[in-house]
Specification:
single chain, mainly alpha, elongated, membrane
Length: 108
């Protein structure tokens, strides 16, 4: 569940930082190429986050758990982005770096 939550947070944060407003909050200017890349990575991470949930709980319950994790990640971003936008970006990087070894280990 921790792996799915970390991937959901990283994906939701990447999608948020792909938006003009939030991108300017963190980097003080827009960068269309970076924003497109963040949106693409965000959708890919959300899709990958579904895999450990389905693997752990099966198809029907795993999808429900995934939606719950998406909701929790979005709620955390709603709390962080107005007050600490750079902290939200750092947490995205940390959750992504922390989840990649666990994802590779669980795949094997």
């Amino acid at each position: 569940m921790l792996l799915g939550g970390a991937l959901c947070y990283a994906g939701m944060a990447a999608l948020c930082l792909g938006m003009d407003r939030h991108h300017r909050q963190v980097w003080s200017r827009t960068a269309p190429r970076r924003q497109r890349g963040l949106r693409l990575v965000g959708w890919l991470l959300l899709a990958v986050a579904l895999w450990p949930c389905i693997r752990a709980w099966g198809g029907s319950v795993g999808v429900v758990i995934w939606f719950g994790l998406l909701t929790g990640a979005a709620l955390l971003l709603v709390w962080l982005l107005p007050y600490r936008p750079k902290g939200a970006a750092w947490l995205m990087g940390l959750s992504l770096l922390g989840s990649l070894p666990a994802l590779l280990w669980s795949a094997g």
